[in-house]
Specification:
This protein is of the alpha+beta class. It is 26% helix and 29% strand. It is globular, with a radius of gyration of 22 Å.
Length: 376
């Protein structure tokens, strides 16, 4: 077992973090999660990490000045990146963790499945509240699960820690009262609602929001999104998986030739390309966006790797010159979705609901004064 030393002033730092999360509204007054945050040492699970700031990345460890302040800052602590430099494991921002845990409204002593063990810190919070014997957690990376298991045991928690594809859940332990996923998915895996009892809930990141789905008797899962934007690292099919990244496709975007058009879009080009619209994150989840500056010229790019579709957008005042190729006109799709979203008042994720049928059909609905629906 790993021997862990907790700094003497950690308790005060934990209490301040828990109080701050409550004051900011991430934790509810009197919430049992407050005690979990106040009594669970984060540094045990993230002894070393990377922070990214204005001066770039910096490594932080126990000997770094201000170490505990960094640990208990409301920010994401990255511990691992893939070969392309994309973060693949971290201790998530505590305020986001708190909001998800508050949304995970399972009863006391519920049996739950956590997808994405990662560092084990969120697992420890779940164990603190529910009891380790009622928590099962799974991660695809054996290095992460081995380390998390050791650190959880050192903290007095011994949940069932599994190594495997979390998108398949853990049917041997079903049915669960709830599933909490600390990784992002583009679509709800069909295995998850099948492993949750009727009336149980699934809390996960889909698109750029966190959805809270209640599972019905017929296997349908439906519910709203939390108000704030949220983006977790995506679930990986295997430990060494490297997700497609925009910087891998700058060549095709910059050098390909296709159809050219000039137009005056109703929304600024950078807002279209780097959209925060929830429907774009849901419908264009596999479209990569980039902004380049070749020879000092501003160029935006879109690419859909599965079909080879691409678009190159060059702004010129209120107009843009667009050149695109492939079976999909990514610019036209993006422009239409962004314009509709902007005309609706740029609503956030909390304006939407998601319904996933027992057959896997996803229906996204936008409520409010400009209702819309999409079958994904």
């Amino acid at each position: 077992m790993t021997t862990t030393t907790v700094p003497a002033d950690s308790a005060e730092a934990r209490r301040r973090l828990a109080d701050t999360l409550t004051a900011d509204g991430a934790l509810l007054p009197g919430s049992p999660w407050h005690r979990a945050f106040a009594e669970t040492p984060r540094e045990v699970f993230v002894p070393r990490f990377t922070l990214t700031g204005p001066d770039g990345r910096r490594e932080v460890g126990p000997g770094t000045p201000g170490y505990l302040d960094a640990v208990y800052t409301d920010t994401t602590l990255t511990i691992r990146r893939d070969s392309a430099g994309t973060p693949v494991s971290s201790s998530s921002q505590p305020s986001l963790m708190a909001r998800m845990l508050e949304a995970f409204t399972v009863p006391d002593h519920a049996r739950i499945l956590e997808i994405g063990t990662g560092t084990g810190y969120n697992t420890a919070l779940l164990c603190h509240r529910l009891g380790a014997d009622r928590v099962t957690t799974i991660d695809v990376d054996p290095d992460l699960t081995t380390t998390a298991r050791e650190r959880l045991a050192a903290s007095g928690h011994n949940p069932l820690v599994l190594t495997g594809d979390g998108t398949q859940g853990h049917p041997e332990g079903a049915p669960y009262d709830g599933i909490l996923a600390t990784c992002g998915v583009d679509r709800l895996p069909s295995a998850w609602p099948q492993q949750v009892r009727p009336g149980g809930i699934i809390v996960t990141n889909i698109g750029n929001g966190v959805t809270i789905l209640t599972v019905d008797e017929d296997g349908t899962a439906a519910g709203p999104f939390l108000t704030d934007d949220a983006m977790f690292m995506r679930a990986r099919p295997e430990p060494g998986h490297t997700a497609p990244a925009a910087n891998q496709f700058t060549g095709p975007v910059m050098n390909s030739t296709g159809k050219v058009r000039t137009e005056q879009p109703p929304v600024p080009a950078d807002e279209i390309v780097h959209a925060t619209a929830h429907e774009i994150w849901m419908l264009h989840h596999d479209v990569l966006a980039m902004t380049l500056h070749p020879d000092g010229t501003l160029v935006h790019g879109l690419v859909h790797p599965p079909t080879g579709s691409w678009a190159r957008i060059i702004p010129d005042g209120d107009h843009v010159t667009v050149e695109h190729g492939g079976p999909r006109n990514l610019w036209a799709e993006r422009l239409d979705l962004t314009a509709q979203w902007a005309s609706a008042g740029r609503p956030g994720p909390g304006t939407y609901t998601l319904t996933v049928s027992a057959h896997g059909t996803h229906t996204l609905r936008r409520t409010g004064t400009a209702p819309m629906s999409w079958t994904l």
